[in-house]
Amino acid sequence: MKITDLLTKDTILLNMSAASKPEAIDELVGKLDGAGKLKDRDAFKQAINDREAQSTTGIGEGIAIPHAKTSAVDTPAIAFGRSQEGLDYESLDGQPTNLFFMIAASEGANNTHLETLSRLSSFLMDNKFREKLEAAKTEADVIEAINAKEAEEDDDEETADQPAGKILAVTACPTGIAHTFMAADKLKATAKEMGVNIKVQTNGSGGIKNRLTNEDIAEADAIIVAADTKVDMEPFNGKPVIEVPVAKAIHEPKELINKAVNKDAPLYQGGGSNKESSDEKGQRKGVYKHLMNGVSNMLPFVVGGGILIAISFFFGIESDNQFAQMLSTIGGDAAFFLLVPVLAGFIAMSIADRPGFAPGMIGGFIAITQTVEGAGNGSGFLGGLIAGFLAGYLTLLIKKWLEGLPAILDGMKTVLFYPVLAIFGTGMIMLLINPALTSVYTALFGFLESMSGSNLALLGLIVGGMMAVDMGGPVNKAAYTFGIAALDAGNYTFIAAAMAGGMVPPLAMALATTFFKNKFTDQERETGKAAYPLGAFFITEGAIPFAAADPGRVIPSMVAGSALTGMLTMLFGIGLRAPHGGIIVAPLVEGGFMQIVLYLVAIIAGSILGAIIVGFLKKDLRKA
């Protein structure tokens, strides 16, 4: 399939009128819709905006490739737009954007369509091709330039498809349509200019292409992994690996190739991550990464089990209602019982890969089952955290100790040596230290239980405010995890403060876009409508598009609103056994109807405060 089967004269705009990013998106969506390519214009536009919320598709050098794969597309298509003056598209290089390719892929698009769309992305890395598009006077000129480029690439295809050398690379982006292939082509073109042989594997939406073989990896001097999504790293164990975002391969390919040629990269160790990845992606690694792996895998147990336990009280668990007892057994005796072992197991697995999982689970199990007098939950979350890190790093140490064994014994390491030694070591250490951890854990939550008045209000203010600092990020997750730990220990007030505080940011922004319309764009007002249900159901991330667009005004406003809500829930003594669900679980608030009303009052008060502050801080667009 040719690119011009998807990009036709009726989807080309040579003189865009848009002056801003939202206007550019709206104009291109309108062109596709007018050409009959979309089933649902609004749904497609929302899918485009959702992709932009993850990271801008303004890749630099005057190019933007907004794209989405959604059922709102009727026929796979490409819209081309050109802005003579250029506009601010929040491009990665900070420069104006003047060439736009909006890619519309249908939910059931076949590999042929996806490969065609991806091929266009790679063409844009050619300066001469871009110059032809900029100089085009008619729609026919655009079509001719693309056809000529395709013919040129077809002539070189046989040579390009047979890379063989000692530098390898993998490229991958979340959607696997544009950036994946642009990065691959940029690396290949730059390597060719430098006289370096390179083989690049692309992890696109149509599957893995040009897969790296075991022989390739064995012969490689170094490997570049340019990815914004998960890549299987285990085959690269023991090799120098450079991990960077996919955008870095597009903009700094020469630097990456020089590093690879010089082996200027740490050796990849299974389950680990090098410093390059931490610095370049702007994401925390190490301890935080391992902790979040445990927390994220534990959350289904928390949410499912916690809500079932809460419902069991609603149906009358204390009155021996058989259905309520069944809910309690499923939620409490099964799901909630596994919280700490699952947390510990996945922390250990993040550190040491699969060999760490079993010892982590065993360590977490000991943490909650070996108790001391007066402490029925053992060392709870504290013990689980320590057990997870202990098991993970102990397993790594055992793996290192056994590196010198004869190769003939390699098959026995994972099935015999690792589990026996790691489970034994983790179990023995946990049995020795868990009584002390239990005492500390019990004392900590005993202290929290004893807090009252202004001290409790201050703690609620902090927990609530943390939920809005990064809206689903590390600070938010830390506060929520603290609430879960308290819930597991039998304290139901902290999770109430955390959930209420997390509901406020989307609700506050929804209210702000409703009552301060002149301070928001049409797109932001539409997003604000969707923020109402997101906030109501405790999806804090619903406020991220607003925070990303104007962090200086939005984030402080949201923190203030969430902090007020957290403080009020503590002052009102709100207790909630359900760890998630938002407005759905409000009837499960302990204490009867009046407490439910007070809980809702706290959420509404914080939402109104946040909305008023952000409405006051933002500029009136009519005067801009």
TrEMBL record:
Gene Ontology MF, one: protein-phosphocysteine-sugar phosphotransferase activity
SUPFAM superfamilies: Phoshotransferase/anion transport protein, PTS system IIB component-like
Transmembrane segments: 298-317, 329-352, 381-402, 414-433, 453-471, 492-511, 555-576, 596-617
Cell compartments where the protein resides: Cell inner membrane; Cytoplasm
Domain PTS EIIA type-2: 5-149
Domain PTS EIIB type-2: 167-262
Gene3D superfamilies: 3.40.50.2300, Mannitol-specific EII, Chain A
Membrane topology field: Multi-pass membrane protein
Family matches, as Pfam families: PTS_EIIA_2, PTS_EIIC, PTS_IIB
CDD domains: PTS_IIA_fru, PTS_IIB_fructose
Residue span(s) of domain PTS EIIC type-2: 287-624
Protein keywords: Cell membrane, Membrane, Phosphoprotein, Phosphotransferase system, Sugar transport, Transferase, Transmembrane, Transmembrane helix, Transport
GO BP terms in the entry: phosphoenolpyruvate-dependent sugar phosphotransferase system
GO cellular component, one term: cytoplasm
Name of the protein: PTS system, fructose-specific IIC component
Originating species: Halobacillus dabanensis
